[in-house]
Amino acid sequence: QVQLVESGGGLVQAGGSLRLSCVASGSIFMINVINVMGWYRQAPGKQRELVATITRAGTTIYADSVRGRFTISRDNSKNTVTLQMNSLKAEDTAVYYCYGQSFWGQGTQVTVSS
C-alpha cells in the first residue's frame, strides 16, 4: 500500500502564492512503480478536476485554467511531488488532492480571498 500526505494548503489573498507538497510513503516497491503523480482539485458543488500531472521522467500536463500560473515538480529520490501556485484567483479555491497511480491523499484546503 501507498499513503499520500499533502501539506501546504491555507488561506491567501488573490494574487498571492501557495506551495503544496505531497509525500508518498509505504511500500517502496509500489512507490517505485508509480509513473504518473499529480494534483486534482474539487470545489464545492463541482466535480473533481485535473490540475497538473508529472511522470517519473518529468513530462508535465496542466489544465488550461492553471497553465502559466502553476508549476508541478517531482523529486523521485524523496518520493515527493510539489505544486507551486502563483497568481492565485478566487476560482482556484478548492480541496486539492495528491494523486499517484491508484492512490489518493486526504486533501488539503486552498482558499483564495478576492
N→C terminal distance: 40 Å
Integer average pLDDT: 96
Q: Provide the succession of SSEs.
A: EEEHEEEEEEEE
Give me the Rg, rounded: 13 Å
Could you give the count of β-strands?
A: 11
* Biggest sheet details: 7 strands, mixed
Unreliable segments of 5+ consecutive residues? none
Structure description:
The chain is mainly β. 4% of the residues lie in helices and 54% in strands. It contains one helix and eleven strands, in the order E-E-E-H-E-E-E-E-E-E-E-E. The strands form two sheets. Strands 2, 4, 5, 6, 9, 10 and 11 form a seven-stranded mixed β-sheet that branches. The chain has a four-stranded antiparallel β-sheet with strand order 1-3-8-7. The chain is globular, with a radius of gyration of 13 Å. The chain starts with a strand and ends with a strand.
Explain briefly what this protein structure is.
The protein has one helix at residues 28-32, and strands at 2-7, 10-13, 18-26, 37-42, 49-54, 60-62, 70-75, 80-85, 94-100, 103-104, 108-113.
Write the layout of secondary structure elements.
Layout: E1 2-7, E2 10-13, E3 18-26, H1 28-32, E4 37-42, E5 49-54, E6 60-62, E7 70-75, E8 80-85, E9 94-100, E10 103-104, E11 108-113
Parallel strand pairs: 2-11
Antiparallel strand pairs: 1-3, 3-8, 4-5, 4-9, 5-6, 7-8, 9-10, 9-11
Q: Which terms summarize this structure?
A:
seven-stranded mixed beta sheet; globular; 11 strands; mainly beta; 4% helix; four-stranded antiparallel beta sheet; 114 residues; single chain
